[in-house]
Amino acid sequence: MTFIISQFSVLLLSLFGAFTFQKIVCNNLSQVRCNEKDRETLEMFKEGVIDPSNNLLTWSTQQDCCQWKGVHCDNTTSRVTKLDLSQQFLQGEIKLSLLELQFLYHLDLSCNKFNVISIPPTQNNVIFGSNLHYLDLYALDISLEDHISMDNLDWLSQLSSLRYLNLGFIDLHEETNWLLAMPPSLSVLHLSKCQLTNISPTLKHVNLTSLVTLDLSYNHFNSELPHWLFNLSRDVSYLKLKDNSFYGEIPSSLFNYQNLEYLDLSGNMFSGSIPFTLGNLTYLVVLCIGYNSFSGIISEMHFSRLHNLEELDLSKTRFHFSPEWIPLFQLKRLYLDDTNQGPQFPPWIYTQKSLSHLCMSSSKISYVEEEKFRGLIASIDDRIDLSNNSIRGMLPHLSPKVKYVDFSQNSFTGSIPHAWKNLKHLVLISLWNNDLFGEALMILSCLTRLAVINLEKNDFFGAIPNNMSRKLEVVILRSNKFEGSIPPQLFLLSNLIHLDLAHNKLSGSIPQITYNTKEMIVDHYYAPLLVDDSNIDFYEKGQVYECKLDFNRRTIDLSANKISGEIPTELFRLIRVQTLNLSYNHLTGTIPKTIGGMKNLESLDLSNNKLFGEIPENMANLSFLSYLNLSCNNFSGQIPIGTQLQSFGVSSYNGNPELCGAPLTKCSMEKNVVNTIQHRINKDGEFDEESVYLGMGVGFAVGFCGVFASLVIFRKWRQLLSIAQSNV
């Protein structure tokens, strides 16, 4: 019996070994090896690519190109079928010779920073020997982060299998026949931000009968809605025409697309009234018709059948809903900006229990039902914008998940609720221009994800903490009562682009450290900047503007405080800064010569301080400088000569008695000499050695010239006297 069991065990081991060996052999036989022709095509594409983040490192270190990052091959044929290199920070050139990959069905190069697209020469619709009719390319996405030009789309019409196409941010303004180049097989077409102008409004039929999704947003169309738009497939479910210049009335036939789930007509110039046939779109989930010029009144009758609606944008439109109306839908996102809703907060909004976004800026609201209002606001877990109203009362409690909060330009009173320290997801907080007070920063400094903080024009007080969020990009504490010194940590925030601490009670000196604000230093540093459209008061060139946050600008404003000491050299190494204001402080010392490197500087205000010395010569090279104020200091010497500094008026230099040169009075030689010596006096009031030698040299030169001139004059006088005597 034991022998039989032993033999059986040996048999099992043998079978297991044979099975394992067979599996290993099969795996080796089925191992994918990249086709050599496909490899050459990929290498040709790689030659034009700049890869600063080394995301394509595997493309040069591994032999099998099927193992390269983003490359997918068929397990049987070993041919490349998919190339996905989206969001890899790639630059350089897109070579569309990639279409030589004969078995490619999916190509995605989106969200990169390419600056060139090269199209291979075509002859009889053949690209490098590959007939595009036989290419089974199903999806093509080369939407980018910035505009690059393409003036030829003829090759697109040959991609007979193409279903998905995204050319977002590709500049197609020279391509007048873009519509006819689209293959009829398309079901999804995204042409957002392509600078298109011609939409062929008179063309009645376009062969896009398979189209389900159409996105033509953010272009430059200026016409009525084209006829062909109403002859698409009855299955169209997504239509986005946002932010163009379409005008005229909206035809009722548009609402015959009863499968529409997404309709965005906002940001155009449509007029007239909204047809009641809007109610036919019973599958509608998103409806955006704000920022148009509709003349009629929108009422609850338009929405009586839209029970699936989750997003509604009626911004800057006229509408009236009765106080008793209870909608069938439960919205997630509601936008009613720039509407005359007030003075009472609309009662129907209290019925919406699923809101994640509520944006009602500039809606003339002043009264709220406090209990219902607080309950509504506390349930919103993403974005709240109630700015530019007249809402009174204490600040409400917020959802711990909320990300964006804008209560600016209202009449809120009291202090920030202590519970706000638990808003761990908060990215933006704007409370400017209210009647708030207290030590706000003690609470807000606990919020580690905060990127934008705007507390301007309140009565907040206390010191600025050292432990502010390290993700801050915009810090606006202007016109409050903050005191103490400026924390060095503010200049260690790598993403900081806008720092405004003006009109407070800050004292001490500007931090003398090595600044690490990379967004203000490095020309090509790409930080994950917050994208937002919040309003701020922007102070530049001696004026104030209310405008949207501009994430292309770099600003530092420390004016109207009690800051003393010298200006750190490091401050002038922030070469991307465009606006710098240090006026109305107690700063001393000279302007560091490093200021000449601030090549992007447009506005500089150092007025009303105690600065002295000469204006650095290299300031004349600041070619973008369009506003300058150095008045009311102790600057001396000659204003550097150059077209830049002489272009400013007298007011830019007034209040500096020892300063001369255009546009002020001319500088005399004696004054120049005295000023040059005076500027080189040590802080202790003693001459340095160079100043002494300079003075001696100048004195010797002046004395020598005087003696020499006397001798010449005396010699000529003797000659004249001798001639006169001989004549007698």
Explained architecture:
The structure is a single chain. Residues 1-30 and 674-728 have low confidence and may be disordered. Helix 7 runs antiparallel to helix 8 (689-727). The strands form ten sheets. The chain has a 23-stranded mixed beta sheet, with no helix packed on it. Strands 27-29-31-33-35-37 form a six-stranded parallel beta sheet. Strands 1-4-6 form a three-stranded mixed beta sheet. Among the domains are: 45-155, Ribonuclease Inhibitor (Leucine-rich repeat, LRR (right-handed beta-alpha superhelix)), CATH 3.80.10.10; 330-414, no CATH class; 474-665, Ribonuclease Inhibitor (Leucine-rich repeat, LRR (right-handed beta-alpha superhelix), Alpha-Beta Horseshoe). It is globular. The termini are far apart. The protein contains eight helices and 48 strands. It is of the alpha/beta class and 728 residues long.
In a few lines, what is going on in this structure?
The protein is an alpha/beta fold.
Record keyword descriptors for this entry.
six-stranded parallel beta sheet, globular, Leucine-rich repeat, LRR (right-handed beta-alpha superhelix), 23-stranded mixed beta sheet
What class, by secondary structure content?
alpha/beta
Strand content: 15-25%
Q: Low-confidence stretches at least 5 residues in length (pLDDT < 50)?
A: 1-30, 674-728
Largest sheet: 23 strands, mixed
Mean pLDDT equals 85
Counting DSSP H or I runs of 4 or more residues, the number of helices is 8
CATH topology heading of the domain at 474-665? Leucine-rich repeat, LRR (right-handed beta-alpha superhelix)
**Global Rg:** 36 Å
Helical fraction equals 10-25%
Give the CA-CA distance, first to last residue. Answer: 165 Å
Number of strands: 48
CATH superfamily heading of the domain at 474-665: Ribonuclease Inhibitor
Shape: globular
CATH class of the domain at 474-665: Alpha Beta
CATH hierarchy: architecture of the domain at 474-665: Alpha-Beta Horseshoe
